[in-house]
């Protein structure tokens, strides 16, 4: 007896059980189970499956007027989206490589401006005290507009840290979420750009329902 058709049926049944949709007519949302994570989305949004890429599971959730892309990675390859102010300061992306001080080995202290410094550097948000071999210079730091124009909220539990992002002006910026594990290299991101106020609210509501199944 040829068992190939039976084997094919079992494989397809297993695959379908990993990606399922369950409607919840009480709130206009449906639960989407994608194996590695689940999320509840509006009933008129759908999942597009472009397939796994390398070490990540990537895909899209689409609606009538939006696209949310996601990346789920065991290797920490998901984009962490927009930096918070503190992430930007710690990254030293503000460093001017024209400075004579070496980048590494310089003692750095970043702090808010005092009144005299505000008068001298009216566009600066912070001052960095850069000390090397007993000499200190003061370097003004301006947080980029790409960060200032976004609301960025950090939350956490014992397993994950969550960064939720949405624009201060609806329709002009990124709406997204980045999740990373406290205990491994696993991370996850989902985001869309320039969403309408209605879609932004729906996306933020959907983000709150994400359950990582690790």
Report on the structure:
By secondary structure, the chain is of the alpha+beta class. Helix content is 20%, strand content 41%. The chain contains 5 helices and 15 strands. The protein has helices at 4-18, 85-91, 115-120, 145-148, 197-207, and strands at 20-24, 29-33, 37-42, 46-48, 52-53, 56-63, 66-73, 107-111, 126-132, 135-141, 150-156, 160-167, 174-181, 187-193, 211-212. Strands 4, 5, 6, 7, 11, 12, 13 and 14 form an 8-stranded antiparallel beta sheet that branches. A 4-stranded antiparallel beta sheet has the order 1-2-3-15. The two termini are 39 Å apart. Mean pLDDT is 88; it is low at 1-17.
Shape summary: elongated
Mean pLDDT: 88
Number of strands: 15
Percent of residues in helical segments?
10-25%
List low-confidence stretches.
1-17
Rg computed from alpha carbons, rounded to a whole number of angstroms: 23 Å
Summarize this entry quickly:
The protein has 214 residues and is an alpha+beta fold. 20% of the residues lie in helices and 41% in strands.
């Amino acid at each position: 007896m040829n068992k190939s058709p039976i084997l094919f049926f079992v494989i397809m049944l297993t695959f379908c059980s990993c990606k399922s949709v369950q409607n919840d007519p009480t709130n206009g949302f449906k639960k989407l189970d994608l194996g590695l994570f689940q999320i509840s989305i509006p009933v008129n949004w759908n999942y597009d499956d472009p397939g796994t890429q390398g070490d990540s599971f990537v895909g899209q959730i689409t609606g009538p007027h939006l696209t949310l892309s996601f990346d789920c990675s065991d290797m920490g390859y998901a984009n962490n989206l927009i930096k918070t102010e503190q992430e930007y300061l710690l990254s030293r992306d503000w460093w001017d490589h024209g400075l004579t001080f070496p980048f590494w080995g310089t003692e750095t202290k970043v702090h808010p401006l005092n009144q005299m410094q505000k008068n001298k550097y009216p566009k600066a948000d912070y001052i960095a005290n850069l000390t090397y071999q007993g000499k200190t210079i003061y370097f003004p730091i301006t947080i980029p507009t790409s960060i200032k124009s976004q609301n960025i909220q950090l939350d956490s539990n014992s397993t994950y840290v969550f960064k939720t992002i949405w624009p201060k002006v609806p329709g002009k910026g990124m709406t997204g979420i980045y999740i990373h594990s406290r205990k491994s290299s696993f991370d996850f991101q989902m985001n869309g750009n320039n969403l309408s106020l209605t879609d932004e609210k729906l996306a933020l509501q959907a983000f709150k329902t994400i359950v990582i199944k690790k």
